[in-house]
Amino acid sequence: MTALPGSVGADSNRFDNVLKGGSDLEGRPEYPRFLWCGDACLVTEFGDTIDPLINSMVKGLELKIRGLVLPWLVETVPTYRSLAVYVDPWETRREEVELTVISLAREVEAKSMPSAAIAEIPVCYGGNFGPDLERVSIHTGLGPDDIIRLHSSKLYRIYMMGFTPGFPYLGGMDPRLETPRLEDPRTLIPAGSVGIAGKQTGIYPIPSPGGWNIIGRTPLVLFDPARPSPFLLEAGMEIRFVPVPEERFEEILSGKGA
Amino acid sequence: MSVEVISPGMLSTVQDLGRYGFQAFGMPVAGALDRYSLMAGNLVVGNDLRAAGLEITISGPELLFRSERLVCITGGDLSPKINDRDVPVWQGLMLREGDVLSFGGARNRGSRSWICIGGGIDTPPVMGSRSTYLRGGLGGCDGRRLKRGDILPLGAPDNFSRRGEGFIVPHELRQNYIERPVIRVIPGPQEALIAPEGVECFYSSSYRVGPDSDRMGYRLQGPVIRHKESPDMISDAVPWGAIQVPGNGLPIIMMADCQTTGGYPKIAGVINADLGLLSMMLPGDYLSFRRCAVTEAADASRALKGDLERIRVLLADHRSRPKDPSREIPADDGAMLLKFGGETFDVTWRII
């Protein structure tokens, strides 16, 4: 129905042009922009590039809105460069929504954003858990150990969630790991699989078909609808992959320490 | 306290008003494709507006009632029958233990109905909702469509609710099926990515609902809409009702089960009050679009809210009347609401 996750980070180099040298809203009179999508969703755009700074402004506006008690507020959806505010049109008027969102958005400044929470994701790389590690090695010319080192040494920002419930759109993968998708997608990839597709890396929260190069698997359960907090990850967080030996997988899975 | 599924029909799912609060995590809202119909039906049978009912599609299920319940079928008319006798939609119907509710099929009066049952369908809530999200396999009856032999647990009905028996929702307070509807939309956030002649084409053409349309989205067939340059954009949020134009230029209306984010330009967004009209459409049906302002959309939404309030008022009046078997109203009779000197009157009539 919709496109697969886009190539994260591909547009980062355009950021300077958009920002015109500034680090706040002053240099970009066209932002923030406010756009209705139907009458139940007001979108605030902070830019049109994929960049941590712009994304942190999105998160900043979300925090401000969630800090208020608004009877008409249904929920908020942060994405790369915009925040969607869902409202109940039975309970409010357009002017009220616009007034609230616009005044809060103008208060949001990139520099005042709190630093993101960091989540550590244990990953068993290679072997049965990462059947495509060798494929990535052949394509990149890097040895398996180098791939694991490069993949686990970076901090990845969760720009947004979508595609399937609990899927994090991650930014920040080392460009040396870039590997095209499989020509023949697998019919079933187990939950927790960590993969590389083009410029991006990600984790499958639920079992699904897919064409990503699977290099490892985490024993953490990213999505469990029966848990009080069904989702482990959230947009705005940063994550780090931590290599763990294969024998630790079952231990962590059964809750004997993570 | 249950209903047994003798045959499931084409696509029958448990739905309530949807699973809100998790779109930020990629969880679609799901829920009844016409919230108004579900809420109106719930009112008639004495349920909380948020109670779960059955959304049924084109050919309805066959259901065996294992306990006595008040039922109201809203939305389109899929020719409902109790023990093989035709019964009307949008009316409070009492089903006795052992009664069978079945459907004759769609008769060009809408493709979907909602069956609301006193006490509501009491499948376990998942993340705050009983709505079935088919693609995620979650909510409702094990996250799937009904199948033969399913037993649907029912909640405890409000004793007062059975007095909604015989209540007829006046025609002007129903979500009625309209042929070739003109759907009101608000220009979308990425209208600027569409070529001006593409935008013109969208508003001046008729589109047909394609065969591969479902609860995720309606794929439309008709004149191709051209983008200015590339159809690519940075993925952002996709609300129910958003109309995306992918690379092939054929618009897709996103429905309740749609993905929460997407990367195609949104040319327009269907106003909340017109989503119910869409729910009635069948593949092959035609529709067109008209621009409207957010203010007009808000008025339409408030009108719907007002309609629901009017049903509530009429129902309270109906329930307060002493029960008189001679007043039982056959299927062909009608009802309407009269306003006179600030008073509201519920008038029913019989065609002889």
Whole-number count of domains of chain A: 2
So how many helices of chain A? 6
- The end-to-end span of chain A amounts to 37 Å
Oligomer type: heterodimer
Radius of gyration of chain A, in angstroms, nearest whole number: 20 Å
Give the CATH superfamily of the largest domain in chain A.
Cyclophilin-like
User: How many beta-strand segments of chain A?
Assistant: 13
SS field, number of helical segments of chain B:
4
- Biggest sheet of chain B: strands, sense, closure? 7 strands, mixed, barrel
Structural class of chain A: alpha+beta
What's the level 1 CATH class of the largest domain in chain A? Mainly Beta
How many domains, in number, for the residues of chain B?
A: 2
Residues in helix, % of chain B:
10-25%
Hey, roughly how much beta strand do the residues of chain B contain?
25-35%
Describe the structure.
The complex is a heterodimer of chains A (258) and B (352). In chain A, strands 7-6-13-5-12-9-10 form a 7-stranded mixed β-sheet. In chain A, strands 1-2-4-3 form a 4-stranded antiparallel β-sheet, covered by helices on one side. With 258 residues, chain A is of the alpha+beta class. Chain A is elongated and about 55 Å long. Chain A has 2 domains: 12-112, Gyrase A, domain 2 (2-Layer Sandwich); 118-253, Cyclophilin (Beta Barrel). In chain A, 23% of the residues lie in helices and 26% in strands. With 352 residues, chain B is of the alpha+beta class. Chain B has 2 domains: 2-173, no CATH class; 182-295, Cyclophilin-like (Cyclophilin), CATH 2.40.100. Chain B has 4 helices and 22 strands. Chain B has helices at residues 35-44, 196-204, 275-279, 294-320, and strands at residues 2-7, 13-15, 53-57, 62-65, 69-75, 80-82, 85-86, 92-95, 100-103, 112-117, 151-153, 182-187, 207-209, 217-221, 236-237, 242-244, 252-254, 261-262, 266-270, 286-291, 334-340, 343-349. A 7-stranded mixed barrel of chain B has the order 12-19-16-17-14-13-20. In chain B, a hairpin with a 7-residue loop joins strand 16 (242-244) and strand 17. Mean pLDDT of chain B is 92; it is low at 326-332. Chains A and B meet through strand 2, strand 3 and strand 4 of A and strand 15, strand 18, strand 19 and helix 4 of B.
